[in-house]
Amino acid sequence: MIKTEFGLEVQNLRKVYKSNDANEPVVALEKLDLQVKKGSFFGLLGPNGAGKSTLINILAGLVIKTSGIVKIRHIDQDINVREFKRSIGVVPQETNFDPFLTPYESLNIQAGLYGVRKSDRQINQILKKLGLEGKSSAYMRSLSGGMRRRLLIGKALVHAPEVVILDEPTAGVDIELREMLWNYMKDLNAKGTTIILTTHYLEEAEALCEKIAILNKGELIACNDTSDLLAKVNLKVLNIKFNNLDPDKIKLPEKARLKKHQNQKLSISYNRNEIKIDQILECLKSQGLEIIDLSTEEADLADVFKLLTNKNNR
Ligand code: ADP
Ligand code: MG
Fold first, then answer.
1. Cα separation values, 127 from 68, 96, 154, Å
2. Whole-angstrom Cα distance, residue 62 to residue 19?
3. Taking the model in full, what pTM does it have?
4. Which residue stretches of the chain have pLDDT < 70?
5. Whose alpha carbon is nearest atom 12 of ligand 1?
6. Which ligand is nearest the CA of 54, by number?
7. Nearest protein CA to atom 26 of ligand 1, as residue
């Protein structure tokens, strides 16, 4: 039987941080299994402290796992150490550069560290793709935050890795740059690179990722095709416009949750498997709410995310 090879495979991964003071050790990842299809665009989501960076830092070789197996295809992180390193490019969250290097030098040194032959180096092409061609010999300290972030991406790409992992690459960047990074990631992915992305912008994950895993407190609580994830929870949003009633006094049925309240408009999300729209409306009307207008829409990933992570916290 031929064993399926994945772009990235994580088996029974566990990470316990031993505390340096009298605190309890922190279990950051527990029994984590993950399979990312080769060539896919994969989203890794989760609230703060879920363990995303721990996972990414383990993959990057910056954090030592407590136990478990990590592979890119058949390449095992602990067995094929060099090959694994060459197969992966990680874009960390924080920018940290030598102020006396230029972008060109920085990428060139990185390529050298990875043993990329001089004739194979594509430094100028990468700088151009990232919109940094005009800055190739500027000093690092003269680059804006957005430029440094792009350079970080360049550093992860100089050795043309088959798997690229980006830890919140678009955090705090303006719309123009965000679109450029999206296009760049899409382009890389179209050429066959497996892309794994963490982001706080759920609409970004929804737009880019075929499949999404949600981590919470070190455990995987969902891993589905993005469209299935949205469909699976059967979540709907009910928008109501009304002309009376003090918002603070409105009580929702237990199975419905308030998404947004603005002036005379209420947005309520609910799971169609758990409660019917009639029941919500009955409940509101019984409190004297006068409805002027009403519409429903499909929930977005943010609703699904809240639903799943809240459930897990109870
Ligand atoms: P995320 O990136 O999803 O926000 P992290 O992987 O950074 O989550 O953190 C997961 C958990 O591990 C948190 O409880 C965090 O406090 C803890 N943690 C992370 N790094 C360390 C460390 N170096 N030492 C001890 N605890 C840590
Ligand atoms: Mg993090």
1. 37, 18, 7
2. 17
3. 0.82
4. 1-2, 22, 245, 247, 311-314
5. 28
6. 1
7. 17
